[in-house]
Design a protein that fits this description.
The complex is a heterodimer of chains A (about 350) and B (about 220).
Chain A (H helix, E strand, L loop, with lengths): L4 E2 L5 H10 L6 H11 L13 H10 E2 L7 E4 L5 E7 L3 E9 L4 E4 L3 E3 L8 H4 L2 E4 L2 H9 L9 E4 L9 H12 L11 E5 L3 H10 L3 E5 L5 H7 L8 H8 L10 E7 L7 H10 L6 E6 L13 H13 L3 E4 L28
Parallel strand pairs in A: 1-2, 6-9, 9-10, 10-11, 11-12, 12-13, 13-14
Antiparallel strand pairs in A: 3-4, 4-5, 5-6, 7-8
Helix pairs in contact in A: 1-2, 5-6
Chain B lengths: L8 E4 L2 E6 L2 E7 L9 E5 L7 E4 L8 E7 L7 H5 L6 E4 L13 E6 L4 H11 L3 E7 L8 H8 L3 E5 L8 E2 L2 H7 L8 E7 H13 L7 E6 L1
Parallel strand pairs in B: 8-9, 8-12, 9-10, 10-11, 12-13
Antiparallel strand pairs in B: 1-7, 2-3, 3-6, 4-5, 4-7
Helix pairs in contact in B: 4-5
Classes of the chains: A alpha/beta (about 350), B alpha/beta (about 220).
């Protein structure tokens, strides 16, 4: 039996076109959007303000297409890691991080990742697929704690700007009044800096932006993150500085602290130099060890000293709490490598 | 020279040769100086999202050449394969920092990842190098007719699916695993898919190579 087309993940415009092409009133498009994105309906049967005939027509040709999580692990600190299915038998993970004054969901944009950053577990599984806009939004809408969700970060599996079309479509659904209705100020997209897509994102979206910088020195960054060969940091910074960060949209920099590598005074000074004039913050992060990775995290004293020195030099710096470490949900640890089917190497 | 100029300008194709089934070398006049190992962005129109390719020709050659394989589901490569001499192509200036250098080093590539090493080799940087090239089939050892006579035993072909004379039987990671000693005072340049780069990098680290000596270019 041929798989039915999924409606979850379509924009209002697309849903309206589908309604019209199936002989339904134009406003059915908006009804579909509200049911799927706001009320979390998983079937047309639930959509009681659409006529029975309309629901039959939709049922015959389409499915809603949301997916519930398959597994949840709960950390001692309250963080939850969800396993969701995606197309073609793949899987992705998301992490729900409850705090006193906010609850954040860290979502994935790809199955695996191509970027090969030295310190990230997701990179170790290679790249399997881009998530569709629907699969991205599904992580939010299908979250059991959805009602309590305040913030969303694209810091899970994958490089969001390596999947730009689906990312932008997902953001449209997430932030539109007809969609999930989140404020863009509650959403942060994090990237290692894929320049052309980055420009497009910054032009089109008002969500917050985070750059995974991890060192201010190009040669060092090249060793940690091969992307530096193609989109070097000075060019990424040049682009960033073309945008206005003085109003509602914020920029932050992510910086994992590696012992003896990027945790020196020299690094502080260079960070201060390249971030000069930019209204931003740096989130310092503990390194969460990944198997077969020759890196160690800086000790707590070094982390504190680094933070304090940056702050003293006028760069707002905070140390991000490591959440969900006991369930491999902390930064850099999401991976569905073990669930990959036996597959041939591509070399 | 290290600036990614994503502005695309038109150029004229001078040659487009199929060197193996579904694998092409397309060339256009060289207008800019480049460092072997650098890349160019390529598209069929100035407003298309370009794809990035390593330059696969020497610094002194009249044309810049790039190596690509056709992805049937792709939007660019099937059309790229059909271009003929005289057709228009949109290209960026060369950029990137995966630089070839004169120091002794290992070059490790899989499939079309051989491209930057072709550029380095043709630019005279092959003398003190060991090149390890991995391919699933014997047909995939592109440019072997250039590497073999010049590099001899310092050019190692690893074939994971077919047997051939003078060709190591097995994946290049297996070859590396079996090497008793890998010098840790050399640089290791890797180029290929993310999967290959991550696997090889992990293996090199396990064998005691400092990650500071591993320079990777991932084809994404």
């Amino acid at each position: 039996m041929m798989e039915k087309e999924k409606l979850f993940g379509k924009t209002l415009e697309e849903l309206t076109e589908i309604a019209i092409s199936n002989g339904l009133p134009k406003f059915t498009g908006k009804q579909l959007a509200e049911w799927m994105y706001q009320k979390g309906a998983a079937s047309f049967e639930e959509m009681t303000n659409i006529s029975k005939k309309g629901r039959s027509v939709l049922e015959a040709n389409y499915e809603v297409g949301t997916r519930q999580h398959l597994k949840v692990q709960t950390s001692a600190d309250g963080t939850k890691k969800y396993l969701f299915p995606s197309a073609e038998g793949h899987f992705i993970e998301s992490a729900y991080i409850p705090e006193n004054n906010r609850n954040t969901l860290c979502i994935s944009s790809q199955v695996g990742c191509k970027m090969g950053c030295l310190f990230c577990a997701t990179g170790k599984q290679g790249f399997q697929a881009n998530l569709t806009a629907g699969e991205i939004v599904n992580q939010v809408v299908s979250l059991p704690e959805r009602e309590n969700l305040t913030n969303l970060v694209f810091m899970g599996m994958g490089e969001p700007l390596d999947n730009p079309e689906n990312l932008l479509k997902a953001l449209e659904i997430l932030t539109s009044d007809w969609g999930v209705g989140m404020s863009p100020r509650r959403i942060t997209v994090s990237t290692i800096g894929i320049l052309p897509a980055m420009k497009d994102f910054l032009d089109k979206s008002s969500c917050h932006f985070a750059l995974s910088i991890h060192t201010p020195f190009e040669e060092e960054r090249r060793r940690l993150m091969p992307i530096e060969n193609v989109y070097p940091l000075p060019e990424v910074m040049d682009l960033i500085k073309q945008y206005d960060w003085s109003h509602q949209r914020r920029i932050s920099f992510e910086y994992i602290m590696f012992k003896g590598i990027n945790d020196t005074r020299r690094h502080v000074n260079e960070l201060v130099r390249i971030l000069h004039g930019l209204r931003c913050r740096i989130n310092l992060m503990r390194f969460h060890p990944v198997p077969a990775t020759p890196l160690e995290g800086s000790d707590e004293e070094t982390l504190e000293d680094f933070k304090n020195t940056l702050n003293a030099k006028g760069i707002t710096a905070t140390i991000r709490a490591s959440r969900g470490l006991d369930i491999d949900a902390a930064c850099g640890l999401l991976s569905t490598k073990e669930l990959l089917k036996e597959r041939e190497k591509d070399y | 020279m290290n600036q990614p100029d994503i502005e695309l300008t038109p150029t004229t194709v001078t040659a487009n040769r199929e060197i193996a089934k579904g694998v092409y070398v397309i060339s256009y006049p060289r207008e800019d100086v480049f460092v072997p190992g650098q890349v160019v962005a390529v598209a069929l129109s100035p407003t298309d999202v370009p794809r990035i390719y390593s330059i696969a020709s020497g610094m002194q050659e009249e044309d810049i050449s790039i190596l690509f394989d056709v992805k049937p589901e792709g939007t660019l490569t099937p059309k790229l394969a059909r271009l003929k001499p005289g057709d228009t192509l949109y290209v960026s200036k060369p950029y990137g920092s995966f630089y070839g250098k004169a120091e002794p080093a290992y070059w490790i590539a899989a499939g079309t990842g051989i491209a930057p090493f072709v550029s380095m080799f043709r630019s005279g940087l092959g003398k003190n190098k060991t090149l390890i090239h991995g391919s699933r089939t014997l047909e995939g050892f592109f440019f072997q007719n250039e590497f073999l006579p010049a590099m001899g035993e310092h050019y190692v072909r690893c074939c994971s699916k077919e047997k051939g004379d003078g060709v190591y039987e097995g994946r290049l990671t297996k070859y590396l695993e079996e090497m008793e000693h890998l010098p840790d005072d050399r640089k290791y340049y890797l180029c290929g898919s993310a999967e290959m780069v991550v696997d090889v990098r992990d293996l090199l680290v396990e064998k005691g190579i400092s990650f500071n000596n591993i320079i990777a270019e991932i084809y994404f």
